[in-house]
Amino acid sequence: MLLGNGNMCKSKNPAESDSSDCLPNHHHHHHHQLVVTVGSETSRVHAALNLHEEEAAMPPWPSSSNSCFHQNKNNNVENKKVCSKCDRDHDHDHDQNNNSISNGIQDMKSVEINNNNDHKDHVVVEVEHAVNNANSSFAHAVINMVGMLIGLGQLATPYALQTGGWASVFLLIGLGIICSYTSHLLGQCLSRNSKLMNYTDLGHLSFGTKGRILTTSFIYLEIFMSLVSYTISLHDNLTTIFSTSHLNHLNNFFLSNCLSTSQLLTVIAVLVALPSLWLRDLSSISFLSSGGILMSVVIFVTVACTAVFGGVEVNKEVAVLRLGNIPAISGLYIFSFGGHIVFPDLYREMRDPSKFTKVSIVSFSLVTALYTTLAFMGAKMFGPEVNPQITLSMPRNLIFTKIALWATVLTPMSKYALEFAPFAMQLERNLSKYCSMKSRTRLIIRGCVGSCLLLVILTLALSVPYFEHVLSLTGSLVSVAICVIFPCTFYTKVFWTQISKPMLILNVTLVLLGCFLGAFGTISSFKLLVRNLHRAHLR
């Protein structure tokens, strides 16, 4: 075993490494990244954290299986690789060769990550922790992926099925199959290069800096529009929970002349969630991520219980097909399968990444079955009267309804801090890089910016309270690109010299289909949104 100059080699196979893969350790000090995983929902949003252009060119934080030291030219020990996770001094004297192994063992105990050269704040991360991150089993990966996919989409699937006709379920199933295939493509791209750690890295690999900027913009836009949709859902369900007498009493207490009682309730709920944006340590709210998954399960169970035990007749008629409504509902269906920005994180956390395709197939099959069941239950129970959010159509007197409504209200309030985390961390990173200021000052700026963004989201949600149209617009404008267009494009670009003609034709077809659904869905959703705003203005 030998320890030499401290050059870090990223490839396990010596034949795969080149001069660009081995960099002196002193280049590595300022490019370590700290990824805090506090649950599946946080995994979804921390995919947007690594946005520096130079990170694609620099090696990622080395793992225990692919970091090695090369032989020092003066070292007479046998040329073998020693895996480690440490920073070594660049120059070693000949007299230190005998102590190199023991020094390497001591250095493996911790890694110091410096966030700012001008500040002493640092985090010590044990190497064992990084190694243990890749310990997700097959079942665990399936649970995580299912938890990431289920969200707001399940509320709207009954409305989408009723609006588009029962034959539109084939569009739902088809999009589930397509998204499962594109997740497989992402896994293939990730297996090509171990340096790829997140979705934006795939964009950079395929199209350079422009690709990274484009994917980053779409990720942030999806997070922003999703939070607007969550806030609209919060507004609608809060209004249903509280009776008219409660609302009137609240309105008289606050003497609000500018806001309606339902809007005032939403403002209060958002203000209650606002302090969570000031938290720097996401581990203190890690329970919220699992809570969001639990709420999604509760909503499905309560709808099923309403159909079975609620005394509601499941015999309403559903049209076969309403072709003119397909562009509008396609965005709702696509949004329901949005989760691809997190799949690189899931891939890297798996103990056996070769099973990622099987994980995708099982997960999308389960989610598609759940969406299909929920869509038919809601459409058959309520027919044309079904609300864009299924919880608002359930009978008010049932305990199942109250549980579902509260679950729908608590879910958005748990999302704000977790969804805001990528932007907040990037903001603080930029402040550390370009400005010399204290940690408390950065925290204050971060909290103020987050609060302002949340108020903007609140204003938009109250100004455009049309859940189905905003959600459909998000799916058609953003999700279709992230879930369909980008993965096919990434794979085609990365494997251009190896891709078979049938797969090339398939990928090009899916890109064209995604562009078609995205364009017509965006136009249709935008027109409906403008039409509803115009009607509201005339009242």
UniProtKB/TrEMBL annotation:
It comes from the Eukaryota. The chain crosses the membrane at residues 141-161, 167-187, 253-279, 291-312, 324-347, 359-383, 443-464, 470-492, 504-523. Keywords: Amino-acid transport, Membrane, Transmembrane, Transmembrane helix, Transport. Residues 1-28 are annotated as: Disordered. GO terms for molecular function: L-amino acid transmembrane transporter activity. GO terms for cellular component: vacuolar membrane. It is a multi-pass membrane protein. PANTHER family: AMINO ACID TRANSPORTER, AMINO ACID TRANSPORTER TRANSMEMBRANE DOMAIN-CONTAINING PROTEIN. This is Amino acid transporter transmembrane domain-containing protein. It comes from Camellia sinensis var. sinensis (China tea).
